[in-house]
């Protein structure tokens, strides 16, 4: 049987997927914060 190898592969894929989702989430938060900061800085001149 090839059970341990399959289980290890699943664990690695989940770890990679979690890491990718974390990076995308951080990028989305960074863009959101940049839009807010740009709006605050842009609104200061009015």
Automatic annotation (TrEMBL):
Protein name as catalogued: Transmembrane protein
Keyword field: Membrane, Transmembrane, Transmembrane helix
- Tell me where the transmembrane regions lie: 21-44
